Amino acid sequence: MPRLLLIGLLSLLGISGLFSGNGLGITQAQAAPVAETDPLNSSGLAHLMMQALQEHPQLQMAEQAYLAAKARIKAASALPDPLLTAGIRNVGINKFTIGTEPMSGAGASLQQNFPNPAKLSLMEQIAYRQSLQLEQAWHLQRRQIRRQIQISYFALIENQKAQAINAEIQALFKALQATAEAYYKLGKIPQKEIWRIKTERSRLDLQLQELKQQYLLKQNQLRQDLGWREPQIADLALTGLKFSHPPLPALATLETHLKTHPLWLQQNQGVLETELQVELAKSQLSPDYMLMGGLTQRGLLDPVWELRGGMTLPIYAKDKQEPEIEAARLKHVAQQFKLDQTQQILLQELNQAWIQIQESRRQQALYTQQLIPERRLVFEAALALFPVGQSDLLELIQEISKLLRDQRENLALALQEYKALSDLQYLTGVNG
Q1: Torsion sign over Cα 22, 24, 25, 27
Q2: How much is the mean pLDDT over the chain?
Q3: The whole model's pTM is what?
Q4: Which of 222, 263, 258, 269 has its CA nearest to residue 425?
Q5: Could you report the per-residue pLDDT of 204-256, keeping only the tens digit for each?
Q6: Half-sphere exposure of 259 toward its Cβ, with a 13 Å CA cutoff?
Q7: Contact 76/126 with Cβ under 8 angstroms?
Q8: Tell me, what's the pLDDT at 263?
Q9: Banded pLDDT at 36 (limits 50, 70, 90)
Q10: What average pLDDT does this structure show over 102-123?
């Protein structure tokens, strides 16, 4: 009777995927096939991405900064505003002499300064390079937000699957407890065995509560990644998702995409800008020009007009400008070094992500093809020997706990792989 009770209870539960035929008539429940989607291609993630990229405050600020810099390009090479002056000149102190004295009169003049054309051209080119840097900063922000949303979304999936594993193990312990109670009534096992099972169930309940608390924290993190927009349940669409192994391009292929990374492009534009800054510092030794015209009314006398032109003579500027030129040159060298360093960092991060994916997949294969199936076989063997007294409940409890641990570790490896896949997308812009 107890042996049949054990078989019947576990068969009715149909523990999903934990074990299959074990010689006692216990078989895995056959559920209707459910179409599963890779999380990278889920509609929920796509919806969250679309909303965030359109509404995220940081992206809006970055875009406006770029548009403002773009609007300043033409203004950078514009002439300075003209200077309009007006005044009265009167010869003598005690009497009004306009109209009687040739040197007295009232007039106005207009002066326009003309910076050296080379300076204006360089300032426009510098403004253009600065706008391109802000544009790449905007694109970089988009990639960073995409990656963070993906990671938070995958963490929610991992948490839900961990809760499902907890529920499966809990159901298994519930069946064992019912069986143990039946054996206890027959006097075949002591009551402490039931207490052990209850202790394990309480431990699972505690783990479940921790998982639920972590889920709320991960949801809060996702809201923050979305710019504090409240994700709706329909937006998340976490059901029907399965961690798989998306095709992974060759490392050499991925490396070719690094030069399209916004950070690399931004640093490259910085190199070009500092090169122009060096030329602008040198151009300060070139003369600037000025043109002025004016008209003076002298009352009854004929009006007087004048037209003047001038240019600066950079006689003393050389000694003052040489340190500026050297500072600009050193800044250019530092920016070039920063670009080279950025290339190395991106390449290193790419290699680390690629290796992480390969290692995670290798370890997952070890769990799914060896460790977990072997753990199930050990459990099923202990389960088969239990009715004849050749294994005890403690052994069954230990095997179930080990099975739970292996499944959770395998799930953590899957999350680790998908985080690395997000890093690959961030670095290369290529979907894994």
Answers
A1: negative
A2: 86
A3: 0.82
A4: 258
A5: 999 999 999 999 999 999 989 988 777 665 567 677 788 888 888 899 999 99
A6: 4
A7: yes
A8: 96
A9: low
A10: 93
Query: Maximum Cα–Cα distance for the chain, whole Å?
Result: 137
Residue with tokens 């009265």: 88
Would you state the pLDDT for residue 234?
53
The two tokens of residue 417 are 């792989």
Query: Which residue type, as a one-letter code, is found at position 414?
Result: A
Do residues 38 and 421 touch, judged by C-beta distance below 8 A? Answer: no
From the list 426, 424, 417, the residue with the least C-alpha distance to 157 is 417
Least confident span in 90-99, 255-264, 301-310, 389-398: 389-398
Residues 401-425 pLDDT 10s? 898 999 999 999 999 999 999 999 9
Do strands 289-298 and 301-311 pair parallel, antiparallel, or not at all (unpaired)?
antiparallel
| Residue 314 and residue 232 in contact, taking contact as beta carbons nearer than 8 Å | no
* Residue for token pair 């890093």: 423
Residue 101: DSSP 8-state = B
Beta strands (DSSP E) in 281-323 are 289-298, 301-311
Residues 6 or more apart whose CB falls under 8 angstroms from that of 352 comprise 423
- What token pair was written down for 181? 């109670």
Is residue 107 over pLDDT 60? yes
What strand order describes the sheet that includes 289-298?
A: 83-89, 105-114, 289-298, 301-311
**In Å, what is the CA distance from 412 to each residue of 79, 240, 309, 351, 415?**
62, 18, 77, 21, 5
Please report the DSSP string for 241-258 in residue order. B---------HHHHHTTG
Please name which of 126, 77, 130, 70 lies closest in space to residue 281, comparing C-alpha atoms. 126
Q: What is the CA radius of gyration of the chain?
A: 39
Q: Of 255, 420, 426, give the one whose Cα is nearest residue 343.
A: 255
